[in-house]
Amino acid sequence: MIHVVAVGDGVDPDRLDALAADLAHTFGVSCHVREGVLDAGYARDSARNQYHSTAILDRLRGLAAGPGVRVLGVTAHDLFVPIFTFVFGEAQLEGHCAVVSLYRLSEEHYGLPVDEGKLRERLVKEAVHELGHTFGLGHCDDWRCVMASSHGVERLDVKGAGFCGECGRVVERSCAL
Ligand SMILES: [Zn+2]
Ligand SMILES: [Zn+2]
């Protein structure tokens, strides 16, 4: 089971519902949007004006409600880890928690017209990718696989929203547990 939770203000609840539906479809498990918003203020780095994703993961861990539950945080804030200028998201490898940011996924961020369809597609790809890490998957060499690494929206747009055969089998085994 997957729980989706808003992290910080500015995340549209309808967007979370749509994401939950997309994730339920991809993983074949139930996906539930949790009430309320997890405060992210403590994770803010004022010098960078960004939020430290690893600190958010630590807090999300406290929300994991059982061994089979994955918790996915969704934030409108820009995320970073110290070695990168930004990240789209971060996950605990073989853990239970992941976080993704909408901040750099919208067309508006790049000065382009609003494209809701594209944003939804990018969000689900990034969410599936980070959740894939929680199932122990590393980055995949198949560029079409959702587990291909993508540190830019162009790369995110060319890859698929689903797992390649090999990655899919790993997730299937974990979901069947
Ligand atoms: Zn990754
Ligand atoms: Zn793959």
Describe the structure.
The structure is a single chain. With 177 residues, this protein is an alpha/beta fold. The chain has a single domain, classed as 3-Layer(aba) Sandwich (Collagenase (Catalytic Domain)), CATH 3.40.390. It has 5 helices and 8 strands; from the N terminus they run βαβββαββββααα. A 5-stranded mixed sheet has the order 2-1-5-8-7, with helices on both faces. The chain has a 3-stranded mixed sheet with strand order 3-4-6. Helix 1 packs across helix 3. It is globular. The model has no long low-confidence stretch (mean pLDDT 94). One zinc ion binds next to helix 3.
Short description:
The protein is an alpha/beta fold.
Q: What structural class is derived from the secondary structure elements?
A: alpha/beta
The CATH class label is: Alpha Beta
Give the strand line-up of the largest sheet: 2-1-5-8-7
Helix count from the secondary structure assignment? 5
**Element order: H for helix, E for strand:** EHEEEHEEEEHHH
β content, as a range? 15-25%
Q: Poorly predicted ranges (pLDDT <50, ≥5 residues)?
A: none
CATH architecture: 3-Layer(aba) Sandwich
Q: Which small molecules are bound?
A: zinc ion
The share of residues in helices is 25-40%
The major pleated sheet works out as: 5 strands, mixed
Please tell me the total number of domains: 1
Mean pLDDT: 94
Q: Estimate the global geometry from the Cα principal axes.
A: globular
Tell me the CATH superfamily: Collagenase (Catalytic Domain)
> Compute the gyration radius: what is it?
15 Å
CATH fold call: Collagenase (Catalytic Domain)
Q: How far apart are the first and last residues' alpha carbons, in Å? A: 11 Å
Q: Please provide the count of β strands.
A: 8
